[in-house]
Amino acid sequence: MKAIYPEHAGATSNRILITTEELKGFCGGCGRRAAIQIGTAAKARVRVGRRVFWSVPKITAFLERAAE
User: Fold this and answer.
1) Domain count of the chain?
2) Which positions ≥6 away from 30 have C-beta within 8 Å?
3) Phi-psi region for residue 19, left (φ > 0), alpha (ψ -120 to 50) or beta?
4) What's the Rg (C-alpha) of the chain?
5) Looking at the domain assignment, is residue 7 inside a domain?
6) pLDDT at position 14, please?
7) Proportion of the chain above pLDDT 70, given as a percent
8) Domain range spanning residue 44?
9) Is 60 contained in some domain?
């Protein structure tokens, strides 16, 4: 899939919302299904029209809690 904004590709640390493809990489390179399960468990899903984004702060907090 072509990056819409290539200047932001890979810079998920400064962004609040990321796409599902970026979420897969953010979660350590896991698959799409696992990434969506993690995002849903973290209650980080944000819908804008038909598009789905994921809240980076919520996912980060969830992964830190899960790592303890």
Assistant:
1) 1
2) 24, 38
3) beta
4) 12
5) no
6) 81
7) 81
8) 16-67
9) yes
Whole-structure pTM value? 0.77
| 42 closest CA partner among 51, 31, 34, 32 | 34
DSSP string, 4-63: SSGGGTT-GGG-SEE-HHHHHHHTTS--HHHHHHHHHHTT-EEEETTEEEEEHHHHHHHH
Asked if 53 contacts 19 with a C-beta cutoff of 8 angstroms, the reply is: yes
Query: Is 2 part of a structural domain of the chain?
Result: no
Output phi, psi for 47, to 5 deg: -100, 130
34's tokens: 């696992």
Say which amino acid occupies 46. Answer: V
Q: Is residue 4 part of a domain?
A: no
Instruction: Give residue 4's pLDDT.
Output: 52
